[in-house]
Design goal:
0% strand, mainly alpha, 7 helices
Amino acid sequence: MDFMRLLKSIEELLYEVVSWLLFYPLTMWRALRDPDKMMRYANVELSDDVDEQYQDTMSPPMFLLLTLLIVHGLELGFISDRSWVAPSMLASDSNLLIFRAVVFSVFPLLMAVKLLRFRGARIDRATLKPPFYSQCYVAAPFALGVSLAGVVWRVHNSTASVAALLLLVVAIVWYVAVETRWFARNLDLGLGRALLSVVVSVLQGVAAMLIVGTAIALTQAPGT
């Protein structure tokens, strides 16, 4: 009986993983084509029963995590020089992937918290989940662009450096533009104030990334 249950679990896991081949590019396309609609969709889906949620897309956190996993795979395939990963703690592929997942999850978290604060809503696990999930749908393309820029940059030639810089700029501009429009529409803010709020949140996310990275580097430094 236990063996049959194990087979059933493996069957369900296999189907789930294989279905990503269809639903991941579909979700990415929809997030890029109409990010506002996808963020609204994320909120609506959370009101359904658990088994009925995200039937025609990937769930937002899994979408973000799989995006980082794909970029990590591309990095392993195309970049052999890992000398840029200074701290030994991040030399492990699993640790590096976890670090990136946490870092890029900070951006949707900060945006979600700011949205709740503007609305004057109480911040707890229940109220934070819908805006966080919706923000993951646009954080994934942003994370893809930024991470790919980092991979291209490490090719170490002038053409790749220019391409990496352009990719980074496009990713940041797209993300800021999407978030500014979302803040303006959902909080009845002027574009200027919405843009300022988004830029501040992005800078806070970058600061958090640098702080965490620096802390890891210091804890792994010789003599510590």
